[in-house]
């Protein structure tokens, strides 16, 4: 059983980084360090030490390894603080770049689109890419909650650039009878040309005074927003802190 676990780990180690927990991050970093140093002229003995540090050992091997005295080579390798910090920074940058590429897939927007006509509204829904989530705020000047929701959209559009945030006045939709002041502000969410969620008089879901964080939490409850880039960065930072 122990041999099977070790074999599985070694197979992962030979491929791409697959361990996301603190211990997995440590092993991935050591692997990255070994690759970085292979391009430099270092003694083969140090490479072997790094390999041993990155691979799991059986319990007996671990006891034997820690019970013997530390060699000069191991001491020098472990105490190369400055060199380790530089290598760790390289590894973190690589992780950030990989994560950014994954999150950056697809179109990016970053601001709120003001739709002027009903035709423009329909065109936005029908012609946008199918992978894009479109959140539309139907509002009117002077209606309670509309200004706060528009302000929230400005923040959310910057935080979720992969989501297309739009707003349109009810009087410009061509269907004002359907969007009377009693149902405003209204929030419509589309994806792939289909309406997936709609919320009328959405301000009633919040306190008298509400902000972008309240709207964000509300949309997240319904699974309408993707993972924020900053959340992924914070997760990586937490793993780094645990590793240290």
From TrEMBL:
Source superkingdom: Eukaryota
Stretches with biased composition (Basic and acidic residues): 28-38
GO process annotations (BP): regulation of G protein-coupled receptor signaling pathway; visual perception
Cellular localization per UniProt: Cell projection, Cilium, Photoreceptor outer segment; Cytoplasm, Cytosol; Nucleus; Photoreceptor inner segment
The protein, known as: Phosducin
Alphabetical UniProt keywords: Cell projection, Cilium, Cytoplasm, Nucleus, Phosphoprotein, Sensory transduction, Vision
Residues covered by region (Disordered): 1-66
Compositionally skewed regions (Acidic residues) per UniProt: 1-14
Family: Belongs to the phosducin family.
Residue ranges of domain Phosducin in the record: 1-242
Pfam families per record: Phosducin
A GO-annotated cellular component: nucleus
């Amino acid at each position: 059983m122990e041999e099977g676990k070790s074999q599985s780990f070694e197979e992962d180690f030979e491929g791409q980084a697959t361990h996301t927990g603190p211990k997995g991050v440590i092993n991935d970093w050591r692997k990255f360090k070994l690759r970085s140093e292979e391009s430099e002229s270092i003694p083969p003995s140090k490479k072997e030490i790094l390999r041993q540090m990155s691979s799991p050992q059986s319990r007996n091997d671990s006891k034997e390894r820690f019970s013997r005295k530390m060699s000069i080579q191991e001491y020098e390798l472990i105490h190369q603080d400055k060199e380790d910090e530089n290598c760790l920074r390289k590894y973190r940058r690589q992780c950030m770049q990989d994560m950014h590429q994954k999150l950056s897939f697809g179109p990016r927007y970053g601001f709120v689109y003001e739709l002027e006509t009903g035709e423009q509204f329909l065109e936005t829904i029908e012609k946008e890419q199918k992978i894009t989530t479109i959140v539309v705020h139907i509002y009117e000047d002077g209606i309670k909650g509309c200004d706060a929701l528009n302000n929230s959209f400005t923040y959310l559009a910057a935080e979720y650039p992969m989501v297309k945030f739009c707003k349109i006045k009810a009087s410009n939709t061509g269907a004002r009878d359907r969007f009377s002041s009693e149902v405003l502000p209204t929030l419509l969410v589309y994806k792939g040309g289909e309406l997936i969620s709609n919320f009328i008089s959405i301000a009633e879901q919040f306190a008298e005074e509400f902000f972008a964080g309240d709207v964000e939490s509300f949309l997240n409850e319904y699974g309408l927003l993707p993972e924020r880039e900053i959340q992924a960065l914070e997760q990586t930072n937490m793993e780094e802190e645990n590793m240290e």
